[in-house]
Each structure stands twice: as C-alpha cells, then as structure tokens.
TrEMBL record, chain A:
It comes from Siphonobacter aquaeclarae. The chain crosses the membrane at residues 42-63, 96-117, 138-166, 178-201, 213-239, 309-331. Keywords: Membrane, Transmembrane, Transmembrane helix. This is ABC-2 type transport system permease protein. GO terms for molecular function: ABC-type transporter activity. Pfam families: ABC2_membrane_2 (PF12679). GO terms for cellular component: plasma membrane.
Automatic annotation (TrEMBL), chain B:
The keyword tRNA processing does not apply. Belongs to the ABC transporter superfamily. The keyword Transport applies. PANTHER family: ABC TRANSPORTER, ATP-BINDING PROTEIN. This is ABC-2 type transport system ATP-binding protein. InterPro entries: AAA+_ATPase, ABC_transporter-like_ATP-bd, P-loop_NTPase. The lineage of its organism: Bacteria, Pseudomonadati, Bacteroidota, Cytophagia, Cytophagales. Residues 6-237 form the ABC transporter domain. GO terms for molecular function: ATP binding; ATP hydrolysis activity. Keywords: ATP-binding, Nucleotide-binding, Transport. Pfam families: ABC_tran.
C-alpha cells in the first residue's frame, strides 16, 4: 500500500439531487444495478428463452389457425383479430395466457428467490446497509428491478405479436384490442409480481438460497397441481349426494368450489385473462337459464369485462401487497449480521 | 472539552437469556484509535452493529457524532465508514464498479467520484486490478478494496471489524500504518475490533478489553499495565557471563525497591517498584560479575490480556479452566 495523498476533507453535502449522477437518487442507482445484474445473468437468459419459446410456439399455432378463427361467424369474438391471435389454438399447444399462468410464477421465483439471502451470504448486505440508504430502498430496488425487467419482456413480446400480426394480415388494430391487451399485460405483470414478492419474502425468511427456492417452488407446485385435488376432496367430503339436491343448491355448491379455487393466484390470473382476452365471456361462474334469457351472444364492452375481473385484480394486488408488507416487517427490524 | 465522537451509555443487548453486551459505557474522542479487544463471542461485533443501527439495543443508547444510532441510523451512516469482518463484493462487477456503486449510494458527485475512486485504488495498491471482477480477488485484496470503499465517503469515523483477518504479515503492517497515518493526518476516529493483540498494540492509542459482554478494562497500554501489575510494572532483565546462584538472588532482594527476583542460570529478572536499573547493574559489577546485557522488561498486551482473562476466570469460574477454553467459539 502506498501512502495516501492528502485528500481534501469535504464536508458532507447530503443527498442534494443536483449532486447525484444524472439526478439519480440512491434508490434509482440501486434499481439500475439490479436490472444490470438480472439482464447479465445466465438465469435470466434461460428464463427469457423459455418464455420466448413458448410465446413463439403458441403464436405459430395461432397464426396457423387464425384464418379459420376469424372466418367463424358463430363466434361473437371473431372480429378481434389480435385477441384471437393470443387465444386461438388447435389443441396441440395451450394458448399463451394459459402457458403464462404456469411459467409466470417460475419467472417471478427465478428472479426473486435469492434476492436478500444471497447478498447476505456474499457479505454485501451489511456493506450496503452501512451506506446512507434506507433499508426499505433495498427491498424496493429488488422488487422494482425485477418487475421492470419482466415488464419490458412482456411489453416487447406483445408489441412483437402485434407487429407480426399487422405484417401478416394488414388488419388495423382496434382501440378496444389495445385496451384489452394492455389489461392482459398489466394482469400478467401483477401475477408475476405476486410470485416475485413471495419469493423475496422467502429469501428474507430463509438464510439458504436453496431452502428459499424449494419453499417457493413448493408453494407454486401446491397451487398448480394439488390445490384443485385438495379442494375437490374436501368439498366431496361435505357434499350431499347431488341426486337429492335441488338445482339451485347444486349451483350453490358449484359456486362454493369455484370460490375456494380462487384462493389460488393461478386461478385468479386465468379468470382475469380469459375475461379480458375473450370479450364474449360474461360471467366466471355458472349462469342459470333465467340469467341467460334474452342475452344476445355479443362481445362485452371493455368496461364490462373490466368490471367482471375487478375482484380478481384486487385479489392479486392484495396478495402481492400482503407478501410485500410481510417482507417489510421481517426485514426492517432484523439484525444484519454477516 | 470537545464532544466525544462515540459515546455508548449503558448499552445492553440480550439474545433471549444470553446477555451479549452488558451495560457497556464507552467514550471515544476525535482522532483517537481505539482497539476493542476480546475473544470470539465477546460481543464485539454486536456492539459495532448497534453503533451503526444495524441492530437495536435492548437498552441504553449509542451516540455517534451527536446522532443517536438507533433512531437516526442514516445520519450516522453518512459519517461512519464500516468494514465488516466478512466482507464481500458484487462478484460480477469490477473493483472500480463496486467502488463507484458505493460512491453513488453516498451521493458523491460523479466527476469527483471517478477521481477519488482511482486515487483510492492507488492508495490501497489495486490500480492494476481495477478492471478485474471481484470474484477473482483474494481475501487480502478484498480487504484492501474494503478499506478503499470505507475511505471513499470520507468518513469522520471508521469502524473496522477484524480488519487484519486474512492478510499476510506485510500487508497487516502496511494496513495498520495506513490507518494510523490517516487518523493522524485527517483527524479520523478509528474503532477497530480484533483478537490479534500485537496488531492492536501497534496502532491503538487506547484499548478496551471486552469479555463476555463486559468491558473489563479500558485505557492506554501503560495505564493498563500499571493498573494490573501495580508497583511491579518496571522490570529489568540482566544477562551475565557466569551462572548465578541463590545467594545472588537473596542479596538482590535486599536492594530497596526490588519486589521479585527470578533466576534462570545466567539470566536474572528483577521486578521493581521504581526505576533502579543503575543500582542493579552496580550490584552485579560490585560482586565481580560481568554484565553482558541489560534489558528493560515491558508488560505487553499479551500479558495484560492473559492476566485479565485469568482474573475474570478465577472470579467467575472457581473450577480451574484451561486458557484454551476461552478461545473456543461461542458463536
């Protein structure tokens, strides 16, 4: 080590904004670092190619069947070309939004499961928290950084989709379709955001990255695979023999099962995206004949579809906020020991 | 009198029933280098974490540069540079990028930041490795980068937790010299924790001996030595050409001021309450013995440390415990 040239001792000037880099606050710097970290990581490259591949696959299938779908005048939605592009399938591959209900969690988990504990294990956590930044800024930067990356991914994928659609068919996109696709994007980002928040929560709770990854993946598997089975089993135990039930009672039980299933975020997401992408869907539960009487099979306006999915959106938002709040509660007063 | 830079009052931290830090009072003034000495698990790191507001004390208060560390940690973190004992860097970023990132979190203006980061990398001798990713760094290099990072924000107080762990002896010397130089030139207050006695001895103005969450003793090396060994703080070791006998020792003990005499063939160690080296030498010469060497005996930190541990042990654990048991890990 050499001797130190006398540095001018500068009175500390605080966080005045004109001093910081291009007006960046420490929080923005942290988010920028997170984004760089994600974008350069192998993990993200793998996840990105996975999402891109499923997107290309489902687009390929739907582009092949688009002519038939649009020509099908029985379908009240047949004029929404771009929504059709997102939802049409010939059965060989599920449509993109169903794919996303499986892969979205993986994306969120992959970007968040080691958010805090890897920093702690690498010894960077105590160094960062010894700097004059708020503790919650670190959590926020983890959340915002990953969400920003995911948002960019989804938005660019759908723009690609729309662009390709315009190139192939030359059909102008309707404002209603733009609204619905934006709604779909928002819902998808929110959905991934929920899993991200859950993963970050686990990364705070568990010291080992492997443990936290296993726990979140366990929760994800439970909701995608076992939850339906558990609900069915549980309801069947209580359900009287349907043969002795009135139709209205059967309806009630059906409603109950559906509502129980909606505890799974995946169900909320599928409900929401289906309603948004298929304008003719007017209810997410069963409808009685009386309710259907006099209804013309026509697409709903965007506002009406939005009203139908509003509970789902609120539910997902609430779940995300709860995870995030728990993360805060755990992290803010925890002792930062290396 | 100037306001103290670091002031701990009745600081206590409990983990369940375990008292990690027990009613600690400590005052450190500007420009001082204070060494916090203690075995593993003595509560050094916990104390440091409380100073930075990284953990909350159970009771008591920490004031750094006039800010309460528990309620206003941000104000404290602006003026304190902290180097944890197990420090890591973002492995996929270069050394320079790591420094720049920390600088940005401290809101240092960009132009100044670049100049200063390069300057500091040169100071710690990492200029050639500035563009290397930190994943390739050795422990010692990380430690040096850590020091650069601490200095980057131009702190008023530096807190170093086991700063010399994992550096080679030459590196340790350079590191400590640099810290001392910084403290002297810029009036930096330094608090360093360690269980390496000799290193602490080299640089610290004052040391505190910290065992089991309690500060057993505090003061400069001289004060500690005098407090411990009392009147017998002075000593002389004399080497003569001929073997010595017990009669010599008996006669030596008769000299005024001599407390104790230890004989070992041709070497005699005399502990005395006053400075009576000339009398001792005159005694040997008068007895016709050729004196080959006369050395003053100073009690070092080693002795102080050991004595404190022994007294503590004899107070707390009546059963004879080996010294080794002290160094077992509590953590």
């Amino acid at each position: 080590m050499k001797s130190l040239p006398l540095l001018p001792v500068r009175p500390f000037s605080g966080n005045t904004s004109e001093e910081t880099r291009r007006g960046r606050t420490p929080l923005q710097n942290m988010i920028a670092r997170e984004v760089t970290d994600h974008v350069r990581s192998w993990r993200f490259a793998v996840l990105l190619s996975l999402i891109a591949l499923t997107f290309l696959g489902s687009m390929y299938v739907s582009a092949g069947n688009i002519r038939a779908a649009v020509a099908n005048t029985q379908d009240p939605d047949h004029l929404f070309l771009y929504l059709k592009l997102l939802t049409t399938t010939d059965g060989s591959l599920p449509p993109f939004h169903i794919f996303l209900s499986f892969l979205g969690p993986l994306l969120g988990i992959g970007l968040g499961f080691d958010a805090i504990n890897s920093e702690q294990n690498n010894g960077t956590l105590s160094r960062i928290l010894a700097q004059p930044v708020y503790r919650d800024n670190l959590l926020l930067s983890k959340f915002a950084g990953a969400l920003l990356v995911i948002g960019c991914l989804f938005v660019s994928l759908s723009l690609l989709m729309i662009g390709t659609g315009i190139c192939i068919t030359g059909v102008k996109i309707e404002p209603e379709e733009i609204l619905r696709i934006s709604g779909f994007l928002f819902l998808s980002i929110l959905y991934v955001g929920f899993w991200l928040a859950l993963a970050i929560l686990c990364s705070i709770r568990f010291r080992q990255t492997a443990t936290s990854a296993l726990v979140v993946i366990g929760i994800w598997l439970f909701f995608t695979v076992f939850f339906k089975i558990v609900v069915n089993l549980a309801v069947r135990a209580f359900l009287p023999d349907p043969a002795y039930l009135l139709p209205t009672e059967i309806m009630k039980y059906n409603e109950l099962i559906l509502n129980l299933l909606r505890f799974s975020p995946g169900q909320l997401y599928t409900d929401g995206t289906t309603t948004l992408l298929m304008p003719s869907v007017r209810s997410l539960g069963p409808l009685t004949m009386e309710q259907m009487a006099g209804a013309i099979p026509a697409p709903l306006p965007f506002r009406e579809s939005l009203l139908i999915v509003w509970p789902q959106v609120s539910g997902l938002t609430a779940a995300t906020v709860v995870c995030f709040a728990l993360s805060y509660a755990l992290f803010m007063r925890r002792e930062i020991r290396v | 009198m100037e306001k103290p830079v670091i002031q701990l009052k009745g600081l206590t931290k409990c983990y369940g029933s375990l008292k990690a830090v027990d009613r600690l009072d400590l005052t450190i003034h500007r420009g001082e280098i204070f060494g916090l000495l203690g075995p593993n698990g003595a509560g050094k790191t916990t104390t440091i974490l409380m100073m930075l507001g990284l953990t909350e004390p159970t009771s008591g208060s920490v004031t750094l540069c006039g800010h309460n560390a528990t309620t206003h940690p941000l104000a404290v973190k602006k003026v304190v540079g902290y180097m944890p004992d197990n420090l890591g860097f973002y492995a996929n970023m270069t050394a320079l990028d790591n420094l720049l990132y920390i600088g940005r979190l401290n809101a240092i203006p960009e132009k100044e930041l670049h100049v200063r980061a390069r300057q500091l990398l040169e100071v710690v001798g990492l200029t050639a490795d500035a563009a290397q990713k930190t994943s390739t760094f050795s422990r010692g290099m990380k430690q040096r980068l850590g020091l650069a990072e601490v200095l980057l924000k131009q702190p008023e107080v530096i807190i170093l937790d086991e700063p010399t762990l994992g550096i080679d002896p030459a590196g340790v010397r350079a590191f400590l010299t640099l810290i001392r130089q910084l403290s002297r030139e810029q009036g930096l207050t330094v608090l360093l924790s360690s269980h390496h006695l000799h290193q602490v001895q080299q640089v610290c103005d004052r040391v505190g001996i910290f065992v089991g969450g309690k500060m057993l003793a505090e003061g400069s090396m001289d004060t500690l030595a005098r407090g411990l060994f009392g009147s017998a703080a002075n000593g002389v070791r004399v080497t003569v050409t001929e073997p010595l006998f017990d009669e010599h020792a008996k006669e030596l003990r008769r000299l005024p001021g001599v407390e104790e005499v230890t004989l070992d063939d041709r070497i005699v160690e005399v502990a005395c309450s006053e400075e009576i080296t000339p009398e001792i030498v005159r005694f040997f010469v008068g007895n016709g013995l050729d004196v080959r060497a006369v050395q003053p005996v100073r009690y070092g930190l080693d002795d102080i440390y050991q004595t404190y541990f022994e007294t503590k042990q004899s107070h707390e654990k009546p059963a004879p415990a080996t010294r080794k048991a002290l160094f077992r890990k509590y953590e």
